[in-house]
Amino acid sequence: MTLIEALTKKNKMFLAGKWVSGEKIIEVLDPQDNSLIATVPAANEKDVLHSIEEAKKGAKIAADMPTHERIAILNRAADWIYEHKEKYAMTIAREGSKTIKEARKEVVRCIETLRISAEEARRINGETISFDQMPGSEDRMGYYYRFPVGIIVAITPFNDPLNLVAHKVGPAIASGNAIIVKPAPATPLSALLLAEAFEKAGLPPKVLSVITGYPSDMGESLITHSAIRMISFTGGLATGQAIMQKAGLKKMNLELGSNSPVIVLEDADLEEAVESTVSGAFWAAGQNCLGVQRLYVQEDIYRDFVGKFVNRTQQYRVGNKLSEETDMGPMISEKEAKRVESWVNEAVGKGAKLLCGGKRQGSFYYPTVLENVPADCKLATEEVFGPVVTIHSVPDLDTAIFQSNNVDFGLQAGIFTRDLNRAFGAIRELDVGGVMVNDSSDYRIDAMPFGGVKGSGLGREGIKFALQEMTETKVVCFKVSSKRS
């Protein structure tokens, strides 16, 4: 049996340590050719409520687990994935949009995410407090420490179906929480494989669930149930806002996307800027919340940059995801490719100039570059989440910063310049959660704080920072008698 044939099977979901079938199923299709990869259960509200009840017990088990056991389990899960890394990569590539080369990189990052989670588990520390700083409190001493929130619900997207799940599961386990994962219906298999890794690693039952299916079948208990103490969501702005309105009094970590800008100044290394931003724009067919969507190029180098950027874009090899020669595969569905096509057509209809691309073939949308995009187009202000870049000529840095900030998002931005003064000026003025200097907006390592401002969300991911979100602070104060026996 080949690896591809092995993936084509009827899967079960992972509820509180048990592999469970469902009354209904959903089909997992390869977006490249719409072929059936596998089926998974379509969970209902009864399944959701069961997972929550089991997670109540799992939260107690997880909180009581010694730190060294959490560390060992996380490392064993990472080891398991490393031993089966090609299976994980093939699963990512088949169910999603990534090429096999991109998928392998995601597997490496997932392993790193779990290993960092293991390391950070030993660093969940508190501090002593000088209570005698307050007059009258000379006889008091104490400290604070951090404790797990309890049950976390993680709602994850399709574009990084393994590592973005690991970014929620790893810190949750490291900090002693129970977690229920609801992966994107289009890409549930990678999340189920992550659950398998933790099962093989010896994670106690009830601590982790991966529940598959559609929200319409599950009801709203994953959002509204009073036992859920935190929701970690990665996805679109409208869905994030709806979750906040329904959830009630819960901790929230919301990563809601962006339309990231990159500024290229006249003193930039053009070759480096072009190579970095082309990769940043078209990685995973542009379905990347950090992907380069808007380029602001200083007018003196504008034509030179545009020529080099378009030339490099036209060299991109679009095709079979599983080929080692392919640079970019399909979008997650033909529906999404048609949406991007309509946005580009809108811009062109309003006067934008199409420099290359603008072609759709099924779920494939070819790398596309436009200039002179009017401000009232969707491409100018919304997140395209596809392989489309708009390029704008600007007279100076101040104009580039103003236009970069003149949107409702603020996740990450990039700037290319050799001038430290201008780099630090941009760092100070750009209204985003991260600034990459002489790099694409999509640069990220898994240990850094990650999140945005404005419509890009609330809170920060990155293991150390997710651990802070997934724990609460408890203060302890002793009043000590001053009398001696």
Describe the structure.
The chain is α/β, with parallel strands linked by helices and 485 residues long. Helix content is 39%, strand content 22%. It is built from 17 helices and 24 strands. The chain has a 7-stranded mixed sheet, with helices on both faces. It starts with a helix and ends in a 6-residue tail after the last strand. The mean pLDDT is 96. It comes from Peribacillus simplex. InterPro entries: Ald_DH/histidinol_DH, Ald_DH_C, Ald_DH_N, Aldehyde_DH_dom, ALDH-related_metabolic_enz.
Residue runs with pLDDT of under 50 for 5 or more positions: none
Widest beta sheet: strand line-up: 14-17-18-13-12-20-21
Proportion in β-strands: 15-25%
Distance between the termini: 79 Å
Helix content: 25-40%
Q: Could you tell me the mean pLDDT?
A: 96
Q: Which class do the helix and strand fractions yield?
A: alpha/beta
Number of helices: 17
Overall geometry: globular
The main β sheet shows up as:
7 strands, mixed
Summarize this entry quickly.
The chain has 485 residues and is an alpha/beta fold.
List keywords for this structure.
six-stranded mixed sheet, Ald_DH_C, seven-stranded mixed sheet, alpha/beta, oxidoreductase, 485 residues, 17 helices
